[in-house]
Amino acid sequence: MNNIQTMLLFNMSSECLFLKKVIELLTFLYEHPSRLEEKCHTDMKKRLDLSCGNGQGLGNKSSDQESCFATIAEELGWTQTITNDPTSEYSYRYQAHGTQKAVDFELMSSLTERRIPFDLKHGGENGRIFLNDGRFVPGEIYVISFTKLVKVKGQRKSTREHVCVIVLGERVMTEKDRLLLEKYHAIIAEMNEQEKDSDFLFLRTRSANQYVCKQFTPEFVKQEFTYLSERLSCSP
Asked: What is the pTM of this model?
C-alpha cells in the first residue's frame, strides 16, 4: 500500500469516527427528549452568551433548549470552541455564523474537514415553532422539541409527552407548504424592493410565520431519525 492509499484510508476512518460520534449525540437526543426541556443550565446559558460577545440583545440570548443541547454534547465528550477551527477531536461551536443566521450549532473535528450544521426549534406545549422570515434550509439538521398533551381516558388532566424530531431541512415540509412559503417570500421580497413615497419613514414587511408540530407523528419521528442515521453512517 502506497502513501496516498494510506492517507485516504486514514481520512476515511477519521471521518467515520466523527460521524459515529455525531450519531451517538443524535441517538441520545432521540431517546431522551425530556432532556431538551430542562431549565437548570444557567451557567451554560451564560457561557453560550459570552461566546457570542457581550453585545447580544435580549432577543439573541441563548435559550433553555440551546443550553440543554450544549450540556448534553459535553456530557458525551464534545468541547466548545469559540473559533472557526476545532480545538479537539470533537468540538462544537455555538452561533457559528452569527446570531442572525439559521445555524445554532456546528459540530466539527480535528480529524476531518467535514462539519455538521444544526438548527434548533422549540414548540413548547402549544406545538408551534416560529419560522418568522425563515425556512427549513436543505442540508441542515433540525432538532425540533415540543411537548405533546395526551388525553388519558378517566383522567381530568392530560399527560405530557416530550418529543424530539431530528430531521433534515429538505424533508420537513410537504411540497404544498414549501411552494406556498416560497410564493409568500417572493411577494414580500417584491414589496420590500418597491420604492415608497415617504419623507423619513422606512417601511419593511416581515413575516411571523409559524409551523404546526401536528405533522410530527411517532411514525414521522422514527422514519426521519432512521433515515438521517443511515445517511450519516459509514458503509462497511
From this structure: 0.88
CA atoms within 13 A on the CB side of 64: 12
3-class SS of residue 6: helix
Cβ atoms of 28 and 58 within 8 Å: the answer is no
pLDDT digits (tens, 9 = 90+) for 188-214: 999 999 888 889 998 899 999 999 999
Q: Is 175 exposed, middle or buried (0-12, 13-18, 19+ CB in 10 A)?
A: exposed
Note whether 138 and 188 are within 8 A (CB): no
Q: Which residues face 130 on adjacent strands?
A: 210
| Nearest alpha-carbon partner for 33 in 82, 83, 72 | 72
Q: How far is it, in rounded angstroms, from Cα 170 to Cα 28?
A: 23
Q: Give domain limits for the chain.
A: 3-172+207-232
Kindly report, residue by residue over 34-68, the tens digit of the pLDDT: 999 999 999 999 999 998 764 445 557 899 999 99
- 41: nearest Cα among 73, 65, 76: 65
How buried is residue 30: exposed, middle or buried, by Cβ count under 10 Å (0-12/13-18/19+)? buried
